[in-house]
Amino acid sequence: MIKSGVYFTFFVLFISCNNSNKIDAERNGSVDYSILTADSIHYSITVLKNIDSTFGYQINKNNEVFIVQKSIPAISGNNGFKDSSLAKKCGNIVVNKLKNKVFPPSITNEELKSILK
Q: What whole-number distance in Å separates Cα of residue 104 and Cα of residue 30?
């Protein structure tokens, strides 16, 4: 019984890693971060390169687009992150909130300041 559960888990991870989603923004690369939660929800983050050469992120939940954030959250305007690593850090905070069942997974001004410093 345990052996079949292990095989099922590997199967789900294999399938989820082979699925890709496309959106209008150009992708900067492949999935940067992936996590399977205890309740078998799989989240992944893809850093997106916007048309104006800034960066955002996309969060997939079980291989379906869940959140697309092309601009910096928690501030006014539509400016993206100037660096892909900053977009990834912000996406990581959102995924951690999701896996801890914090909803909505909003970014606070303090969290944003810690990312941008």
A: 26
SS3 46: strand
DSSP 3-state of 30:
coil
CA distances from 81 to 11, 23, 40, 115 (A): 35, 18, 31, 10
- pTM of the predicted protein model: 0.69
Q: Could you tell me the two tokens for 72?
A: 């910096």
Range of the domain at 32: 2-116
d(CA 71, CA 105): 15
Residue 74, Ramachandran bin (φ over 0: left; ψ between -120 and 50: alpha; else beta): left
pLDDT tens, the chain, 117 aa long:
554 443 444 443 444 444 443 344 344 444 455 555 667 899 999 999 999 999 999 999 999 999 999 999 999 999 999 999 999 999 999 999 999 999 999 999 999 999 988
Q: How many domains does the chain have?
A: 1
